[in-house]
């Protein structure tokens, strides 16, 4: 069995913790483990292989976190742009044997009852072996408007009557009272070939364009879909493209202590709490306050006489909300989008395949960063049009290329790179390289970069 792990999505409902370049599945919420790591660890007990579908930026985050788990024998499929779940699953299935059973899971869900989960998967596997498309239903415990629903004849049977999109509150309440609806978990199991047959029958354009995209690939271990191929694949979810239309769909009731951790209210329910029902945080000072979700990493947060609040403190943004209203965070993200704010894309600290950088200070005309380069890694050979750069080595040993010159910088040594000059930073040592970079110029945005050569095949 192969676990297809879908890593798409930016988790905007958990902003400002979750950003486009650090989505919620890679944030380490639970005992210094991310939801992605928990997904891999949980499913690797049952599945023989992991097949990770992501974009290029998330690929490098996945590599780092899999290395921490010492799980390095995985396959990857990289999408240049997202086209929703049906194409993502189709591209992966085209890369597998038709008889291979696949377990399709999001990378950002929490499942706490792993013993029951194992039983549920075995039941689903039996149905998949009979050429069914299996989905996993979660019995609803309240009228949730953030999930899709699966309608059945009764919760005791495996036949699916219909799929329903996220309802309004009144409709969700009716679903709950009727007793024959599940929450749609977004997990599936089937033979790769059976899924592709149903996709060809009900969504032939997705089938044909996905098939063509895979045929244009030469590397079977790291599959990079070409942009011009990906853009030609129609965008659609697996529910719309196949599951709502096929007569081979079965649902398995899954009482597995499941959560999609899709809002701060649901995150609050999953985090450990103190005697006053505040989430535990070593930087929290609590005076007579209770039932609060407090998230802070570096700064002390003191709360006095407050109840039922969500307080999310990051380096560059602060969110305060009443509990029960956290679904409205998406309205904040929409407003930031309208302002073209970088706050939805990246934190002060950004992660790259070669290491990371932290913006220490920024104003009109300049930006100061701390850059850390992993041993044996190097940045792209690049140039900038709108800024000059000053590099000062703090620790480690830097190998620097500027135009045709290559030289070494030791701690306390520095160099200057003029706008337009071709340059590269490299760490040939065995310890992390840390430098301070001062950018000076009319524009210091991250998109002022022309990559001439890149070890990681980024554009």
CATH topology of the largest domain: Spore Coat Polysaccharide Biosynthesis Protein SpsA, Chain A
Count of β-strands: 28
Distance between the termini: 34 Å
Beta-strand share of residues: 25-35%
Which CATH-level-2 architecture of the largest domain? Answer: Alpha-Beta Complex
Low-confidence stretches are: none
**Overall SS class:** alpha/beta
Question: What is the number of helical segments per DSSP (H or I, 4+ residues)?
Answer: 11
- Provide the gyration radius in Å: 24 Å
Measured as a percent range, the helix fraction is 10-25%
Let me know the CATH homologous superfamily of the largest domain.
Answer: Spore Coat Polysaccharide Biosynthesis Protein SpsA, Chain A
| Quaternary state of the chains | single chain
Mean pLDDT reading: 93
Which CATH class of the largest domain? Alpha Beta
Bulk shape: globular
Largest sheet: 10 strands, mixed
Domain Mannose-6-phosphate isomerase type II C-terminal: 342-454
Enzyme class: transferase
Protein name: mannose-1-phosphate guanylyltransferase
Keywords: GTP-binding, Isomerase, Nucleotide-binding, Nucleotidyltransferase, Transferase
